[in-house]
Amino acid sequence: MFNPSPSWHLQTTLVSFGIFTSIYLLAEKGIKLTSFQASVCLSVAHSLIISVWCGMILARDDWEFVEPSTPSQANMLAFSLAYFVLDAILCLMVLHDFEGSFHHITVVWGQLAALYSGYAGYQLACFLFVAELSTPWLYLFQTGIAPEGSLFALASQVMFAALFLVGRMIVAPYLATWLCRSPTTPIEVKVSCLVILGISAVWAGRILKVVKTFVKGEDEKPEDSGLSGSQESFSAAPKVYIRSRKGAEAERT
């Protein structure tokens, strides 16, 4: 019988799913953006809201990896769950981004376990906060808001790489040790956490490879993944295009 924890307000997930779906449809059908660009709108909305929400939770609540989730933590997870469910569907059915969909499904699995059991809300708030810090910087140069070859683009790429590598390869593993040692954390959350760390390690390797290329002074983009710009998903594996201003100017001329 479906009997989730009382702290999970299921209507929060359903309403949030409707809101995120409306954002996507408005961007794609109303503003006439591509499916890829519409998915960016979803990611931006989720990233900004979750960063602030999790930041407030971490600033207000005590460091606690054993106690049940508070209503605020559960509602935050319920809201985030709606985004990851929708974007997993989009990655799989529309963008054909199977790597991104696998990442999202893994996150959904962990969040569902946390919401159903009523535990691990604080732990996942920590992870989401760390993970979303790098997201806005990724969008700046991948969308072209920061013009390629400009100092703004270079700064945004450096910030993204630094926040991603420090957050997911140093802070996240430290948090994972606390999460996995907690006797109240559901096993599904622990497994989900370890899988996400593995995925992040693969992405970090790609970032380091591009950084190494940049340091050597080479002006080459990573190999084409076979997807057009409108088909790639920002929520999938991060592709860091660190280009020198000299190289970008040479292309324009």
Provide a descriptive summary of the structure in words:
InterPro entries: TLC-dom (IPR006634), TLCD5 (IPR042512). Residues 32-216 form the TLC domain. It is a multi-pass membrane protein. It holds the Pfam family TRAM_LAG1_CLN8. With 253 residues, the protein is mainly alpha-helical. 70% of the residues lie in helices and 0% in strands. α2 packs across α5 (121-132), α5 runs antiparallel to α7 and α6 runs antiparallel to α7. The longest helix has 31 residues, at 151-181. The model is unreliable at 222-237 (pLDDT under 50).
Task: Compile the SSE list and pairings.
Blueprint (H helix, E strand, L loop, with lengths): L9 H21 L4 H26 L10 H23 L4 H20 L3 H12 L2 H8 L8 H31 L5 H29 L29 H8 L1
Short note summarizing the structure:
With 253 residues, the protein is mostly helical.
Number of helices: 9
Order of helices and strands: HHHHHHHHH
Number of domains: 1
| Low-pLDDT segments | 222-237
Mean pLDDT: 85
**Alpha carbon gyration radius:** 19 Å
Structural class: mainly alpha
Determine the strand fraction and express it as a percent band: under 5%
The gross shape turns out to be globular
- Measured as a percent range, the helix fraction is over 70%
Membrane topology: Multi-pass membrane protein
Protein name: TLC domain-containing protein
Transmembrane segments: 6-27, 39-59, 74-95, 107-131, 151-175
GO cellular component, one term: membrane
